[in-house]
Amino acid sequence: MLTIGALVFLMPLAWMFVTAVKPAEQTMTMPPQWIPVSWDVAESGQTVFVHVDQQSYDAAVSAGDDSVEVNFAYQWVVDRGGDAVPVLVSDKVLNSTHKINAHWRSIAHDDRPVRILEPIEGIADEDLVRVYIYESEVMGFPHKVMRKDLVLHYDQTQRATQRSYSFAREIEVGMETLEKRYIAWDDRKRLAHTETEARFVSLESLRSSADVRWGNFGQAVEEMGQFPRYLSNTLILCVLTVGGTVFSSAVVAYGFSRIDWPGRDKIFVIVLATMMIPFPVTMVPLYGLFRELGWIGTLKPLWVPAFFASAFNVFLLRQFFRTIPKELSEAARIDGCNEWRIFWQIILPLAKPALTVVALFQFLATWNDYLGPLIYLTDQSDFTLALGLQFFQSQHGGTQWHLLMAASCLIVMPVLILFFMAQRTFVEGVSMSGLKG
Amino acid sequence: MTRDTRRRLTSGLLFVSPWVIGALVFSLYPIGMAVYYSFTDYDVLRKPVWVGSMNYREMVVDGVFWRALWNTMVYSLFAVPMSLGLSLVVAVLLNRPILGRSVFRTCYYIPAIVPLVAVGMIWIWLFNGDLGLINHALTLVGIEGPQWTGDPAWTKPMLIMSSVWQIGGSMVLFLAGLQDVPRSLYESADIDGAGPFNQFWHITVPVVSPVLYFNLIMGIIAGVQEFVKPFVMMPDGGPDRSALFYAVYIYQNAFQYSNMGYACAMAVVLFLIILGLTWAANRLVSRHVYYAGE
User: Fold this and answer.
1) What interface predicted TM-score (ipTM) does this complex get?
2) Residue of B nearest to A434 (CA)
3) Where does the record place a coiled coil (chain A) (predicted)?
């Protein structure tokens, strides 16, 4: 029974991971598949990855058919100086003109893409041509380059059509130079000018193989846009909040446990009481306060409060400090140590295990925090990973499940790795936060 | 006051001063302001305008407010006891000397540390009406699963079920509490012929009752504040606002409708609800809580 329960508990994470490494197609199958597979057939001598509907395949097998309907993706390509360039065949009439994606690049400028601003037919190699040179895909600046430094490139990907420096040329080719080239089914959305067809293929020529798409993680990072920024923001916040809360909470916990001053325990009750305050209550006034300070849209609201001790951590560290024998401090006092030195040189080194617990849980809290960043961060470049993931979902959710799960994996994995590295500290920490002591 | 006492007072106060400042600026001042704003019309951009009890009167007639309150209460009423019960049972089972115990503990604990945003993503994918794993599992036993996120009747059960996944924290606390149970109690119970159920009910539950009580209070406080999961899974409150949670409605009022005064009034009510529930749980349970030391 425990085993079944454990499997059920791990199932969501396993499913997240499996989905993350699937080809997009296979997130859309019912019944769901645990092992991502790809299908291929040998087509005129080469292996072509195709799409097969699992249900119709199963139906064909159980009915004893010898063939099943298979979806192919292909392009029409023409040969341009040794390159097979995909073309858009207009009206599906094979002997008319065809559109070809192309752009110019300048050899003299690190092979950067350019847009030609004046006609260049019939001019000599040494003539200057006015062009826009692109730094990135959208930013261009005017320049002059020599004709011989310009080369024409043919674009293979679909994104080429969206680039501002790309253009489509009409070319006329003979029917016999057009070649039908089969491509992997999954590439049909990425590559330019793809077409699909469905036809029956014999069952024995169809092969399936396990297919783990590690590339989905890279694609998820790319599609999330500013993933490196999200990551660095999150890490900055983690470092600042962990440092801030460990230090300040230790100082305050020392004051509440190792020094005996009148009224101490009464005030400590207030510390415990502040743990009860729900965040929604302080949310609006805090927003107003941070707005007055001009902190909205910066990371400050998320880390500055960490330097003022958190009630929970103070409670936890106080419990630990109390277990350290009083005699240690007293001996140091007799030797003339002041409180700060006792704290810094005697108590703090002894409290390392407890400080590790506080650091670990603060790291988790910051890494996982969602509501804080949601309220205080306005600019996409300031987002944390948690907020970035949700932003990604709101843009691409509902369709690209494999990428969404890959992105989720990227957030979950560091936490899991940390857990396995510091498993004992975790369990100790949770027990410490209980009622004992 | 002797010189030594005065010295200890000053250094003690110096050491706790970060917390004092933090509590004043980030807790007490905001609470006071929340109460003040709750009596005003406030949109952050302009100065708050005093409107008396208008926000509170508006709340009484605001159907959405009652809807959000109802959703949150239904959720807490089911999710908190279910999670508590399950984590106690798992803890008891894991407390016995069985093979691979630490592996099991890890399996049950891990979901508790997964970032809530990712938790939301995972569950919305698992509960997908057409492609989800859960509906597929249901078809295997001959049930046609509902459109969880699209059917007002099923959004809350979905959230309640997914909440049971994250029992790791309370489970570890129970495990720690179970260490306090003296072996001899079970041994004498065995001799007296008490079955496992009776032993659980008459020995285990009383001994872990302080932990049970702690987890119950924490569960209630967290339950009525539930924000991230419903917000991530259904940002607009779900079909027919069936998954609009109290904290989500506060957020919407404050940051989407710029109705900060009303949001503060709702927050104050939330605070009172938490205090009330804690007090009630205290009254109800504390009589049955058994403290070994006393």
Assistant:
1) 0.88
2) B173
3) none
